[in-house]
Design a protein that fits this description.
about 400 residues, alpha/beta, Rossmann fold, Tyrosyl-Transfer RNA Synthetase, Structural Genomics Hypothetical 15.5 Kd Protein In mrcA-pckA Intergenic Region, Chain A, 3 domains, six-stranded mixed sheet, five-stranded mixed sheet, 13 strands, globular
Length: about 400
């Protein structure tokens, strides 16, 4: 194999590598390494947090290594307990199938799928019988499983741990055996699972894989890792305007973090950005808009990013209504009912909370009265800075 990237370039941005010395010796063999990444189809959409590790996978593919993206259609039925203090709900076959249909397209926004082999772990895990499973489980102890922080914390707190949850890291480890992985990538919360893959490969007479983990992208709240279940995420399939608006909500302190992990800028560029923020030599709002446009352009194109930026500047900064918006034809009614009918709130109670919190506008005027009524005249109803609908009287 013609090596197109140095060891340092390939490992740039990883938080933990076990071990760099092993990676150097494996590279020195002169053959393409078998690089593995597994993701479970646990929701219909990927978000920016997933793209951090996918970008690293693409780096290995571009350098000529044998890259395999494993979609965990089998392991998704177990549920990954990593980082959870409660049992993760198991998904049905129908939910998994529906989620899988979107993954290839969304992963292709970062991955060159022509260079990547996509496998489904039901291909080998679905063939294991009870005797095979007993053999696998015999190679791991309960003490080993309780070394995981989440399992240990739940055990000490008396929070139930179902036996099937122990199967998840075992099944993921078996993926490494099935594809004879030289290296596995993952987030820092996956390190235990990746190391268990090394253990199982030794047990099966394979050379243990190198484990490389990337930092977890903190969500829009600036506290917890990005997660759809928490709601602090930017979805890959979301509209350009929604992506841009969400990215503009991050704190100034997160600008370098998102530049590095979500826009894939180099460490040198990220350090320069952080220096500019510390010295107040740059406008944080301008930097944030440039960063948001850069990220949106990756998933929707430069023109869509330009329009999303203009939309944000008009609707949020200048508080103008967008030129195009959906219409809602309705009989005169309370604004709380219209907020629900427009899909801006899930219930009348939530809509009334929005009104009391001054989050609802009619033709740009804040309406804080929960019992306010729309009289049927054409008007623009808005909630927050990104939700608009044109009200028209039902005839």
């Amino acid at each position: 194999m013609k090596q197109t990237e140095s060891v340092e370039a390939l490992l740039d941005g990883f938080e933990h590598v076990e071990s760099v010395a092993e990676f150097r010796s494996r590279i020195a063999l002169g053959r393409p390494l078998r690089i593995k990444l597994g993701i479970d189809p646990t929701s219909p959409d990927l978000h920016l947090g997933f793209m951090v590790v996918l970008a690293k996978l693409q780096r290995f593919a571009a350098a000529g290594h044998a890259v395999t993206l494993i979609i965990g259609d089998f392991t998704a039925r177990i549920g990954d307990p990593s980082g959870k203090n409660t049992m993760r709900p198991q998904l049905s076959s129908e939910e998994i199938d529906a989620n899988m249909r979107t993954y290839r397209e969304q992963a292709g926004k970062v991955l060159d799928l022509e260079r990547v082999s996509i496998r489904y772990n039901s291909e080998w895990l679905g063939r294991l019988g009870l005797s095979d499973l007993i053999g696998l489980l015999s190679k791991t102890t309960v003490a080993q499983m309780l070394e995981r922080n989440d399992f240990d914390q739940r055990y000490r707190a008396g929070t139930p741990i179902s036996l099937h949850e122990f199967l998840y890291p075992v099944a993921q480890a078996y993926d490494s055996i099935a594809v004879e992985a030289d290296m596995e990538l993952g987030g820092t919360d996956q390190l235990f699972n990746l190391l268990l893959g090394r253990h199982y490969q030794r047990e099966f007479g394979q050379t243990p894989q190198i484990c490389a983990t990337v930092p977890l992208l903190v969500g829009l709240d600036g506290v917890k890792k990005m997660s759809k279940s928490i709601g602090n995420y930017v979805g890959i399939a979301e509209s350009p305007e929604t992506q841009f608006g969400k990215l503009m909500s991050i704190s100034d302190a997160l600008i370098p973090v998102y530049a590095r992990l979500a826009a894939f800028r180099s460490q040198r560029e990220t350090d320069a950005l952080a220096d500019a923020l510390r010295s107040a030599s740059a406008d944080p709002m301008q930097l944030k808009k440039d960063l948001a446009a850069e990220i949106v352009a990756r998933y929707h194109g430069a023109e869509a990013a330009r329009q999303a930026r203009e939309h944000f500047e008009a609707t949020v900064q200048r508080r103008e209504a967008p030129s195009e918006m959906p219409e809602l034809r309705h009989a005169p009614a309370r604004l709380s009912a219209l907020v629900v009918a427009a899909g801006f709130a899930a219930s009348k109670r939530e809509a009334e909370r929005l009104l009391r919190g001054s989050g609802v506008r009619l033709d740009g005027i804040v309406i804080a009265e929960p019992n306010a009524v729309w009289n049927g005249e054409p008007a623009v109803l808005s909630v927050g800075s990104r939700k608009f609908v044109r009200l028209l009287k039902l005839t």
